[in-house]
């Protein structure tokens, strides 16, 4: 940030930017009115010679399903909106504050992280309203970390935190033209995060650059590993990258064209590309739904038990609340997934045990076998289809994605901007085996460096009304 960096000045600039831009995008659902006070305290520390680390005084936004003791945590639902804030920060938020980050506020999300009804629209919640894509305001910002992705793209902060179960970081990252890192599940504490699935959930960085994502991951994981050390130029001559064409390509002609250009840049970096590979279809949809439904019922009840007494404690409580407030909560889509989860019989159920094993094998065996058989360090694929038009009546129109295999496996993903299709951002995703986060950071940083050298800075959003 340099010697002249002042946290107060930066927070003031971002708050002014938010007042100007966020009425269009609606990315921030709960501003932190104490942000300037916290920034001033951190500036005083800096003046006294105490700098907590590289992120001292850096403003950050946090997704509204992550506990903050000084701000509401709602998961986008009115059922939690009137409840007091959680009794304490989530461990990851404690680490952010300890590192000197200034929490600017909470970002909107797809309600309940997009696992309530089967026809939901990403970026909508009853509490926060609808988040829009800053590149085209009638286009989706993706989900479920829509607010975090749109906020970074719109210049409301360079750093944000999202969460992912299956695509909820890399999707909004790709659609909004930013970097999104879904870490290996377990690398970042899950405590204090409104859950869907303990086997798939993780929080992760959403930033403008790969270096920023690496710095943020360093903080989120406790600092034992400095992931910024893996941002070291664009020489990839010692790495082999697999290109699994099936089933991760072919659903968007424009996206494929941009992704082919990305492969050329990786080759220029010296990487050995092993092309025309294939991943097996990642298990049956029924097995995946069984895992999420069973884990949601148990994990959500455990989370709700940590909140102040008087609020909802079970899925049945939430289902009843939604029915009582159907005119708002259920105005666009239902709660079939909640109702299905409420009928499950616990993590000892033979259905859950069998489905979990099938899903785990489908994800891990598919990735690990492909890596091993071809002596690969990582895989690369298009991230997500370009942003689709918002359709609250019919829900999302996703053409394809890169996230399902890694979701089932609990493995990391890193989406980085690769170009645009008709003015809409698209990205490529690097993926690998468990705990390969550092390798993915190295690859993404090298690609980012090569792309900027070749094409210049990524285009900024113009907040076009229609596209």
Structure description:
The chain has 16 helices and 15 strands. It has helices at 7-25, 35-47, 78-81, 91-98, 146-153, 170-176, 210-220, 245-248, 253-268, 285-304, 315-324, 326-329, 336-342, 350-373, 404-409, 437-455; strands at 28-31, 59-63, 102-107, 124-125, 129-130, 132-133, 136-140, 159-164, 179-182, 202-207, 240-244, 272-278, 378-382, 413-421, 424-431.
Quick overview:
The chain contains 16 helices and 15 strands. It is α/β, with parallel strands linked by helices and 467 residues long. The mean pLDDT is 97.
SSE arrangement:
Elements: H1 7-25, E1 28-31, H2 35-47, E2 59-63, H3 78-81, H4 91-98, E3 102-107, E4 124-125, E5 129-130, E6 132-133, E7 136-140, H5 146-153, E8 159-164, H6 170-176, E9 179-182, E10 202-207, H7 210-220, E11 240-244, H8 245-248, H9 253-268, E12 272-278, H10 285-304, H11 315-324, H12 326-329, H13 336-342, H14 350-373, E13 378-382, H15 404-409, E14 413-421, E15 424-431, H16 437-455
Parallel strand pairs: 2-3, 2-8, 11-12, 11-13
Antiparallel strand pairs: 1-3, 4-5, 6-7, 8-10, 9-10, 9-14, 13-15, 14-15
Largest sheet: 11 strands, mixed
**Dominant shape:** globular
Number of helical stretches of at least 4 residues: 16
As a percent range, the share of helical residues equals: 25-40%
pLDDT below 50 for ≥5 consecutive residues: which ranges?
A: none
Derived structural class: alpha/beta
How would you state the average pLDDT, rounded?
97
How many beta-strand runs? 15
Please report the distance between the alpha carbons of the first and last residues.
Answer: 36 Å
Strand order of the largest sheet: 1-3-2-8-10-9-14-15-13-11-12
β-strand amount? 15-25%
Rg computed from alpha carbons, rounded to a whole number of angstroms = 21 Å
């Amino acid at each position: 940030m340099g010697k002249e960096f002042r946290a107060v000045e930066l927070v003031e600039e971002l708050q002014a930017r938010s007042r100007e831009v966020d009425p269009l995008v609606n990315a921030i659902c709960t501003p932190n009115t104490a942000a300037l006070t916290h920034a001033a305290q951190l500036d005083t520390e800096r003046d006294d010679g105490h700098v907590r680390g590289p992120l001292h005084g850096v403003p950050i936004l946090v997704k509204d399903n992550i506990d903050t003791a000084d701000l509401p945590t709602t998961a986008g639902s009115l059922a939690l909106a009137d409840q007091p804030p959680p009794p304490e920060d989530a461990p990851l938020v404690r680490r952010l504050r300890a590192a000197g980050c200034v929490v600017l506020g909470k970002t909107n999300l797809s309600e309940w992280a997009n696992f309530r009804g089967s026809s939901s629209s990403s970026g909508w919640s009853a509490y926060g309203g609808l988040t829009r894509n800053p590149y085209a305001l009638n286009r989706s910002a993706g989900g479920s970390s829509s607010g975090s992705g749109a906020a970074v793209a719109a210049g409301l902060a360079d750093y944000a935190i999202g969460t992912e179960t299956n695509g909820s970081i890399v999707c909004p990252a790709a659609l909004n033209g930013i970097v999104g890192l879904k870490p290996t599940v377990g690398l970042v504490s899950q405590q204090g995060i409104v859950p869907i699935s303990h086997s798939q959930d993780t929080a992760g960085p959403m930033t403008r650059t790969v270096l920023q994502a690496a710095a943020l991951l360093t903080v989120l994981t406790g600092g034992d590993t400095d992931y910024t050390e893996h941002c070291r130029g664009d020489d990839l001559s010692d790495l082999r990258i697999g290109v699994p064409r099936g089933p991760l390509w072919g659903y968007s002609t424009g996206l494929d064209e941009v992704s082919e250009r990305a492969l050329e840049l990786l080759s220029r970096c010296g990487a050995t590309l092993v092309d025309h590979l294939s991943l097996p279809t990642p298990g049956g949809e029924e097995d995946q739904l069984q895992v999420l439904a069973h884990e949601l019922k148990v994990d959500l009840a455990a989370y709700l038990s940590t909140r102040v007494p008087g609020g909802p404690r079970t899925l049945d409580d939430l289902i009843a609340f939604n029915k009582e407030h159907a005119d708002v909560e259920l105005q666009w889509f239902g709660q079939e997934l909640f109702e299905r989860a409420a009928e499950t019989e616990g993590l000892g159920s033979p259905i859950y045990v069998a489905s979990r094993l099938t899903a785990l094998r489908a994800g891990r065996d598919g990735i690990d076998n492909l890596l091993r058989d071809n002596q690969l360090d990582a895989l690369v694929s298009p991230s997500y289809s370009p942003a689709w038009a918002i359709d609250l009546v019919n829900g999302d129109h996703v053409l394809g994605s890169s996230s399902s295999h890694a979701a089932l496996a609990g493995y990391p993903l890193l989406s980085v901007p690769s170009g645009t299709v008709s003015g809409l951002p698209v990205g490529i995703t690097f993926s690998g085996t468990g705990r390969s986060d550092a390798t993915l950071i190295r690859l993404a940083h090298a690609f980012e460096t090569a792309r900027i050298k070749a094409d210049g800075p990524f285009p900024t959003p113009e907040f076009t009304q229609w596209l």
